[in-house]
Amino acid sequence: MKWRRLPLGPIQTNCYLFSNDEKECLVIDPGGDANKLISILQQQHLKPVAILLTHAHFDHIGAVDEIRNEWKIPVYVHKNEKDWLTNPSLNASQNFMGGAVTVSEADELIKSEGTLTIGSFSLQVYETPGHSPGSVSYYSAEAGLVFSGDALFAGSIGRTDLLDGNHDQLIKSIQDKLLTLPEDTLVLSGHGPETSIEAEMERNPFLNGF
């Protein structure tokens, strides 16, 4: 398995391409710059099979429809944010952009934790709310990495002052779901550089004592 980070969109949100040896890939959080993303996928001869969203804030969804329509693939989002894709007051674009960012409804709703299998890809889904009510993290034991969205960053954690954010819930999500992963697990966050579970356990100032 291979991964590539692509900062995209108005605030350079990390989109990830997670691919296998057959050049199939999952597109995780395509936040914007659709033409650039399509061009990269074509240049790399990658074949997207699904779009996975860690959550549905505007900066993670901006290129969803273009990628979905180009490759005719399904979009996955947690059920708690089912309506956020189509509603700019929920996905925060109304407040931050001065205008609406909307995409079509998701094709598949994540209803619970467990194994998500898409073709040859198998990911463990963890519900990690706090930054938003439907935030999820996708863990690949095979690749030794977790896509944490805006729950956990290198040296920081997600903001909780947006709609239905909850600081205590976020800390609990990180403590119960992410910090229990193997310490050498690579953490691929929604913003900024990669880190590891071990590094965040040792040095993250928001997680001291865990």
UniProtKB/TrEMBL annotation:
UniProt entry keywords in alphabetical sequence: Hydrolase, Metal-binding, Zinc
Cofactor requirement: Zn(2+)
Signal sequence extent: none
SUPFAM superfamilies per record: Metallo-hydrolase/oxidoreductase
Any Pfam family: Lactamase_B
Cross-referenced CDD domains: metallo-hydrolase-like_MBL-fold (cd06262)
All copies of domain Metallo-beta-lactamase, residue ranges: 12-191
PANTHER family, per database record: HYDROXYACYLGLUTATHIONE HYDROLASE GLOC
This protein's name: MBL fold metallo-hydrolase
Biological source species: Metabacillus rhizolycopersici
